[in-house]
Amino acid sequence: MPIKIPNALPATRTLENENVFVMTETRALQQDIRPLKILILNLMPTKIATETQLLRLLGNTPLQIEVGFVQTATYISKNVAPEHLRSFYKTFDEIASERYDGLIITGAPVETMPFEDVAYWKELCEIMDWSDKNVYSTFHICWGAIAGLYHRYGIQKRIFDKKTFGVFEQETLIKTHPLLRGFDDSFYAPHSRYFRVEKEDVVKAGLDVLAYSGETGVHLCADRRCRQFFVTGHGEYDRLTLAREYDRDISAGLDTQKPFQYFPNDDPRRLPIMNWRAHASLMFSNWINFIVYQHTPYDLSELK
What we know:
Blueprint: E1 3-5, H1 11-17, E2 22-24, H2 25-28, E3 36-41, H3 47-58, E4 65-71, H4 82-88, E5 89-91, H5 92-95, E6 100-105, H6 121-134, E7 135-141, H7 143-153, E8 158-172, E9 186-196, H8 199-204, E10 208-213, E11 217-222, E12 228-231, H9 241-251, H10 277-295
Parallel strand pairs: 1-2, 1-4, 3-4, 3-6, 4-5, 6-7, 7-12
Antiparallel strand pairs: 8-9, 8-10, 10-11, 11-12
Helix pairs in contact: 1-3
């Protein structure tokens, strides 16, 4: 079944060409069904690329999903056309009275800054607090994950000089968890960050560690009510996302290592092998199918 997105969203044509089932607003109006309402707080500067990546994963579900986008009012992205933001994004004030089945909070390139120095930190905390009563389940990604862990549980990020950069094998720790239904004993996930989340900090906060790697630390953790999920990697990344980041850093004169286990024979001239898409798709479809859909009340006004 499809994701429901605006007719003119740039991702629409890309996803249709990839045979991802999307439904435009016009077609969706002809169906008598309540779609799941998923809100995406997109903090990434590459907004259109991030939209496409997340919609690609959300489209791998038998349910109809209505996706909305929200941006911060305290900081406006300079890397996307204002017309795009006006057409497809709302500010928090515009959606604060709404309720949603799910919320996705993306990463952001501010991980080395103290949280309180981030321009939109106060607004982000307000949105996370609002989600406690207005959203059934929230999925935090990369910097969004450590921001959520810090705000909700006081877990401090540990910053390193060397970036965790590449595709790393992760161990599946709780195989019976609904988010990991159908997962192999291990799987791969892209990472691109300078911070690390330690297992002992997560366990001390009363959270479950769902996936872990000695190289990357905690990859995936959750509260025991399945209302809050935190993933430090980027399963949504395209095949060439890490390559573009590597080229960008090299062009800027940065001493950046090649992404780990990414280029065949460690040769940047060769096309990377994509070995993380299946588990990323499975993770998001499990979140939608077995957590959000199974537990969100039909009438969202009954959310608690």
